[in-house]
Specification:
Radius of gyration: 21 Å
CATH topology of the largest domain: Arc Repressor Mutant, subunit A
Helix content: 40-55%
Shape: globular
Number of domains: 3
Number of helices: 13
Number of strands: 6
Order of helices and strands: HHHHHHHEEEHEHHEHHEH
Low-confidence stretches: 1-6, 80-101
Length: 290
């Protein structure tokens, strides 16, 4: 069977079917290309055009989802490792460091064994919760009531060891407050967050939006190579676990206004005002000068 003469969507659909059909491993891109009678470059171009990710990135996401499912169902780490398609424990832990946010055994147990330090402070937006593991910031939340924020954190990380330490997180809180107040932060903060390959690409693009500027959902989709994925970009913004630090408030509708925001539209409007952005008028892309 050959897909050389067009039909990228059909090609990608068949490649995904082949990846998902093997329970104990994920075929490599060259293997898929041979099975589908196309070149690896043709397969990669079709994936990038249709899904916005490469076959390898899609396969990595598939492995991680299999791993999460196995661990959530109570499988042992070694069994989950090979069922997900990882060839060695070193590859598993290398991937887990960046994508699970904690060791596989800890993730399987709902965070058991992981330590999350948090604090609640006052901010111009209301009560501010900041939480971090030893790898980086894992949660930022804002609300009207501090105890309610703490309860929500406990539900999300229900098996982790949660420890409040206001003094230890003073530096992180200061940085987040600077961002809330529209000031340029001292630098990038280390993050320990979970997300799909698509969500991570969106979050990385959001961090490239300069202070005081906005982008539309469509512009972000185009910037990450997935034109037409505006709704998916909106969903990725909604799933952002560290708002303000990953500035999803800088993404607005093309028709004007602030649109949706997990912390509420009033807070989004205030954040943009603090940064000098004006979202109410229909959006126009910033002018770049050579």
């Amino acid at each position: 069977m050959s897909y050389i003469n067009g039909m990228p969507t059909t090609l990608v659909t068949e490649a995904c079917r082949l990846m998902e059909a093997t329970d104990d491993r994920v075929p490599s891109a060259p293997e898929l290309a041979r099975a589908l009678a196309v070149s690896p470059d043709q397969l990669r171009r079709a994936f990038t055009r249709t899904l916005g990710v490469t076959p390898r990135q899609y396969g990595d996401t598939l492995r991680r989802e299999r791993l999460r499912r196995q661990l959530r169902d109570g499988g042992d780490v070694t069994g989950a490792l090979f069922s997900a398609g990882y060839g060695s424990t070193s590859r598993l832990y290398e991937a887990a460091h960046g994508h699970l946010g904690m060791t596989p055994a800890s993730y399987r147990s709902g965070g058991a064994g992981a330590t999350i330090v948090y604090t609640v402070a006052a901010s111009p937006l209301g009560a501010l919760l900041v939480a971090a593991t030893d790898r980086g910031l894992c949660k930022v939340d804002v609300g009207d009531d501090g105890p309610a924020l703490e309860a929500a954190l406990a539900r999300e990380f229900h098996r982790a060891e949660l420890r409040r330490d206001d003094e230890a997180l003073t530096g992180l809180v200061t940085d987040v407050l600077a961002r809330i107040e529209g000031r340029t932060p001292a630098g990038d903060l280390p993050l320990d967050v979970q997300g799909t390959a698509f969500q991570r690409r969106v979050w990385e693009e959001l961090q490239r939006i300069p202070l005081g500027q906005t982008r539309t959902y469509g512009e972000v989709a185009a910037a990450i190579g997935s034109p037409g994925a505006s709704r998916a970009v909106g969903s990725a913004c909604g799933a952002n676990p560290v708002p303000v630090v990953v500035p999803c408030h800088r993404v607005v509708p093309a028709t004007g206004g602030v649109g949706n925001y997990g912390l509420g539209p009033a807070r989004k409007r205030r954040l943009l005002a603090q940064e000098g952005a004006t979202p109410d008028a229909p959006h126009r892309a910033p002018v770049t000068r050579g």
